[in-house]
Amino acid sequence: MDAIEVQYPMNGGHGPYSYVQNSSYQKGVVDAARDVIFQVVAEKLDLGNPCFDSSNPFRIADLGCSTGPNTFFAMQNVVEAVKLKYQSIPQTSPEFLVFFNDHTDNDFNVLFRSLPHNTGASPGYFAAGVPGSLLFPKNTFHFLHSSYALQWLSKVPKEVLDRDSPAWNKGKIHYTGSDEHVTKAFFGQFQKDMDGFLKARAQEMVGGGLMLIQLPGIRNGGLFSQTGAGMIHFILGSCLVEMAKMGYTTEEKVDTFNVPQYHPLIEDLEMVVDMNKCFTIEKAGVLFTLRTESFLYFHFLDTIHFLSFSLFRSFPYSVFSLFVSFWHNLNFYAWSWFLTSRAFILSDFHEIRIFTFARKYSGCSRCS
Amino acid sequence: MDAIEVQYPMNGGHGPYSYVQNSSYQKGVVDAARDVIFQVVAEKLDLGNPCFDSSNPFRIADLGCSTGPNTFFAMQNVVEAVKLKYQSIPQTSPEFLVFFNDHTDNDFNVLFRSLPHNTGASPGYFAAGVPGSLLFPKNTFHFLHSSYALQWLSKVPKEVLDRDSPAWNKGKIHYTGSDEHVTKAFFGQFQKDMDGFLKARAQEMVGGGLMLIQLPGIRNGGLFSQTGAGMIHFILGSCLVEMAKMGYTTEEKVDTFNVPQYHPLIEDLEMVVDMNKCFTIEKAGVLFTLRTESFLYFHFLDTIHFLSFSLFRSFPYSVFSLFVSFWHNLNFYAWSWFLTSRAFILSDFHEIRIFTFARKYSGCSRCS
To answer: Is ipTM over 0.90?
Structure first.
């Protein structure tokens, strides 16, 4: 099925459903990570490494940057942290070059036009955009950053769309609330994606380079179905099944739609990194758990928007309109209240985790 | 007057007035330059230079790339030429990294989505986009390329819009057919722009790096007003003056509109490069003169489209519609025939010139 290979970048433009207008939650993640970035750079970045020669620019990439402005705040944090570290050693600070990376279909026009450079500011770095899977020349990057992006899978695992597979995910749009075969299929895809991701990044990074990843996950022992995000996936799936029964859409359409997202356990990530062998986990921690009501409220607004957009792509417009109408007009406040209050009770299972990986020194001709 | 500072990138998208659909002439320039690129790389590129260490990627930029696909053909030519040169020496070919550069308002979305990488092709280089004036880290580029872009000035020179200046360009939209004060004002702007351009590029290029520039110009002793391009600027200006008399627009609007373009004499460029002192001219030649009728026809189609777009930005839509209607419906074929036949007679004054500049070795800590 070709459809599952299609890219789903965040919504472009500046309109009411754009990422620019609907990413206050993701901004919260970037802000919360600021102190960790400074700490990680101070403790773990080895500027004595010959690949950090300050006559060459210090190269950073933000993977899954979307359209801004969150990525600009994140990159500012990284650049400031590295400059501060250079002040503590007898070496001139290098120039900085930031590569903004996302899907080819990401709205790079909006990203470029809102770069801080265009407002007369001097953000202290040069900027470039890179579309696609960012396979870049060897030993390019000194620091990689990815915030709230790697929970997205490259595609829906095939098994969950296959009627003959025990992992067929009939009547659901995600692994939440599904049986273990479905969860395993999603984890399998996450494992493949992360392994491929780490291998590619290992090629692109200098030995000793650092990578900082922030992504939502659940703590070991927790269940995704008990988290707010899990609940919303489950409830939206139920709505669609009901709509199919009412004739607004078909069962087949519901069965072939799945949200390509996996929220890993800590042990999931550790397992992938161990098997991959290119990186070491230098630091792992919880950035925050979803505890505050207002934060949750914004979270669910974003989630609702995302799901609406995905549905828009997968269903005929008429069905989508009905769905949006149903959601926004009839039940929006009720659902928001319900979700907020339920998720508030269960929230400590759902965490935003932050990981620092260091690229091992093997494989880099200049550093090994 | 702020309006003159506004960017005018080529038209984005894939529509009937897009650059993608109206750049066959520019494609002709790129194709004609292919052999010169191979020759210049073979003769002038010094791969023994320490800055051309093949453990680092060979970095190229296309300045004024617009939306494609011409830029992809041009970059393919450069990459192939450099790879061929590496085959002739006992050194492994490096990886290649191409930076596509144009105004921030250029349609990078169209550019990125049409990259050859997306069609499953392996063009042999990694790609990034750079918006704006491309001030990049020192010693970044090994090869710079710019095709049919540098005739565009950064802005209309102030003097030609100033009623109190002897260079006030009343009743005309370009220096063609105007007196020498106007021509001098346009040349002054070209001189400033080129000087700034060369200084910035000298910072960004490695010592010994090459820059290949293709731009339309006139041969020493020629007059721009006698070329096809000069004629079309003059005739369009006259049309607008007539339209102002007929009340379709105002005299003031015509007087404040000028096409920010300068087609240099060879001696103009030589003077700027000599004064600038960062580069040497390694090779200069005529890529072609406008002799073939079919080529001219395409040329004027493009020119007509460009001018229509500029007018669209500068005049109210209603006036623009009238103008387009007047142009396309009443006189299009007559004008085309007239311009083609006239310009055919005069065409050998209008040349596409190609220059190869080498970055001098001073100022580069690694090369000097």
So the answer is: no
